[in-house]
Amino acid sequence: MSDALESLVFSLVPRARQDERLKRSAASSYIRVGTTPGRANAHTPYSHIGQTAEKDIGHLADLIKRHLLQTSPSGASTLRFTNLLSRLLDQPVLSRKHASLQFLHTLTSSPISAPASSFLPALAPPPPAKPSSKAATPTEPHFAARTHKGKSKAEVLREYRLRLGQPHIPEHLILRDTLYLLQGISGKYVQFSVSKDAEQNKELVFTEDPVRDPFLRPISTNLDHAQRYFVPAPMRALIHRLAEVGHLYQRVDAFVREREGRVGVGMIEQSLCHHLQTQLTAYYRLIAVLESQMSIAPHTDESGKENNSIEDRTREEETGLTLKRLDVWIEDWRLHAHGGALVNLIHGYAENGDPFIRKFTNQLLEEVSKPFFATLHKWLFSGELYDPFSEFFVAVDPELAHLQYMQPSLQGVGQLASDGGFTGGDVEDASEEHAGGLQLWEQKYRFRKEMLPAFVGETFGRKHLAIALKYSDIVGLERSIDTAYQIASQRLFDVFFDKYKLLDHLLALKHYLLLGYGDFADQLMDTLGPSLSRPANALYRHNLTATLESALRSSNAQSDPPDVLRRLDARMLEYSHGEIGWDVFTLEYKVDAPIDTVLDPTAMMKYLKLFNHLWKVKRIESTLSAGWMRIAGGAKTFLRVPGILFSTRLPGYILAHRFHLELEYDWHQIRLVMAEMIHFIRQVEAYCHLEVIECSWQDLSHFVQKKEGDLDALIENHRAYLDRMVKKVLLLSPKAGREENLLNQVRDVFTMVLNFREATDDLYNYCLTESARRDAEKDAARGVYTRMETAEDRRYTAESLPDILSRVREYGAAFSDRVQAIVQALASHPDLDCRFLGIRLSFSDFYKTKKEQQLRA
């Protein structure tokens, strides 16, 4: 043996220094592996180390991992090799890492015909394919010592029970028998008792089996004295519960087979048997699915021998079928009837034609329904739901069970917060507070139809409150439910409208957010107008609040209750760059519990949406009114200026010798267009307030005055009141994707009106400037200088007049075209009130005639 080979063997196998036979065996293994077929007779081994055929360590590592996965499918060896490889690559001392890995891989991959003792002690032998009873090799104690260190507590407990002579049966064995029991077949360890009577309930018999040690040697040669498997009591109870399904399956299957072999079975009975057989087939499919969930290779065989690694057993316990999982799945198949459902099931026999059965059922129901009526009685008089076993037809949401209605606390309502700019944080906080009342009313208690007894009826059950005497007085029960329902509903109305003044809050919303107070709306518009024309980021809360309080004191709103006025506040919506105060200003009405049950956050959002639209309508109406008064007041003064001569020809004009004749015609056209605009906006305003808001309020107030129905009916009527206003005021269409088309056209008309008003203001200022300039020229001709030239004089010159007149004509024509399109759209609107609005906008077929003239032109 060469010195290089001997040093290599000593470095890899340290025990070879003392064992000469082991040293020769390792050297011969190296020579056999390193010798190529073409040089089999050569004495010098041909080594693959140092060859440049495979220098990639990554590729070599993949080959080794593939080999390890073939020998140990659990993946533990592969994971360990990856860890060792990373540590090897981090070592700076070793220079020929690829060669070392190549040598070790060649050793493990080559076929070795030497006996078991020729294995290198540092390398674990490959696991045997089958259990063998050969004598243990010298490497077995070392291998067993290493595996003993990794035993789990369950394995130690299993060995302890084995030494005591009371080993528990492995779960996979009893699980296999349980699947047999579900099919009505006796297993090896659990069997059905033999009974001659098929109708008699069968018992389970647990048989015993001798236990064998891990090396397949019986503990006792005499099987009568051998140790037996022990089935614990909890597992016996679980198997008894599961075997009930198999017993029922046996009885159903026996019934079907008996009818199949009988002559003269009727067609209806044959149809029943066919349906039962179909259900049994589906049951077989389910059993097959459960069998597929069992581990293909259980970690212990019938003798208790370990077959799989700890990782395999852990994976099987997490994903495979167990007795507990089987019990959970079987539990879902069972027919459970308790509480009201059980009462309902028994009541199904009360209408039997046999007087004896009917009388017995009534007597049984008389006793069985006493707890149900006791719960019903307590639910009525104390308002408490005592249902520890979920048997009542009213259930409480466990997440909301601890919440109660809060008494209203108006401290701080309507007070100022800070003087900073507005943000959306306050609105979000308010919405969270407002979510309480309606959420408790609609979600804290829910109706369970499956628990409602048939003799009560769903109509009475949904009234939630009832009083009952006993089952024998069903008519009295229904009468009592009606009486209690009416009393409770009347009490609810009294609490909401007398104690918490719900009607005052509804009127306040109508007067302020729906602009029902005309003097308040006009005063607020006049005082807020200059401020809202500024950028949104230049507005502050204290200014808006002060203006709101001033408008309240200057109008009839000051006579409203203080509680109502404290809830009113001025807010701003979230704004973006470029928006002004008119775009983001809004009024807010604060509500709290318990009135937020009716005025929930969704309802308040609808009120704000209506206010924003009505506020825009009011702004347009105020703008047109002010513009009309301005034009009408100046028509006979400075607008009729004397004629002048122009020194230049203006675009679109012949040389004018009388200026006032040209502008007189334009001002006449402006007055015509403005009258058309005023007619449009006033018709829209009258439609919103008179035909929609007032009519909807009339229906709601009529319901409130009758005081009929319950709180749910009040909430539904208020929602219908709001939905009707939103649908009609905003001119919404029921067509999907086109709901707000008409509303967008109306808003475009509002924009045209504002642009037209701006253009007419420029023309007005031009005429005013021109009149003042000519008056100054007359004074100068007399030697009196009364006027200095200003910025407006340079802005409103004769050259700017054509541009101003073109804008006036453009916006006037665009307004007429848009209104004409709105009238046509309203004519085909599905809502009757919207169609009547279109008729009033063009009551004399003005826009129809105008369109015909345009077509002829």
UniProtKB/TrEMBL annotation:
Residues 175-499 form the Gamma tubulin complex component protein N-terminal domain. It is found in: Cytoplasm, Cytoskeleton. One of its GO terms (biological process) is meiotic cell cycle. Its main location: cytoplasm. Residues 502-847 form the Gamma tubulin complex component C-terminal domain. GO terms for molecular function: gamma-tubulin binding; microtubule minus-end binding. Keywords: Cytoplasm, Cytoskeleton, Microtubule. The keyword Cytoplasm applies. It comes from the Eukaryota. One of its GO terms (cellular component) is mitotic spindle pole body. Residues 118-150 are annotated as: Disordered. InterPro entries: GCP, GCP_C, GCP_C_sf, GCP_N. Belongs to the TUBGCP family. This is Spindle pole body component. It comes from Pycnoporus cinnabarinus (Cinnabar-red polypore).
